[in-house]
Amino acid sequence: xxxxxxxxxxxxxxxxxxxxxxxxxxxxxxxxxxxxxxxxxxxxxxxxxxxxxxxxxxxxxxxxxxxxxxxxxxxxxxxxxxxxxxxxxxxxxxxxxxxxxxxxxxxxxxxxxxxxxxxxxxxxxxxxxxxxxxxxxxxxxxxxxxx
Length: 147
Prior knowledge:
Elements: E1 4-10, E2 13-21, E3 31-33, E4 36-38, H1 41-53, E5 66-75, H2 90-103, E6 113-122, E7 130-138
Parallel strand pairs: 5-6
Antiparallel strand pairs: 1-2, 2-7, 3-4, 5-7
């Protein structure tokens, strides 16, 4: 899995856009056993693969900033399903990718994200599922929106 990446700096903004191939994954609830807390193997493998596919950020971009994020999840339609929309809660899809982006230094913490948009759709017939991510960052003192 390798991300297709595009970085653009314009005025006060830095825009990063990339596509992560492979099926999107929802963040499950942690499992608890007498040996401790853990996540399912499918999710931990997905996180590891996604972290490896993300672009490495130059050190000057790894700073506290106001962040706007746009996520689009393109999910394969199940052959036996009659659903007209992809299953899985949109916020669980977003949580999974945001956790990976936080770990890879796209922001210090999720608290830096001030605006987010999330869509989930079925992927077009014949195409592989993927996740499209756009991150817009600006200096902390920049006002992102006004009345």
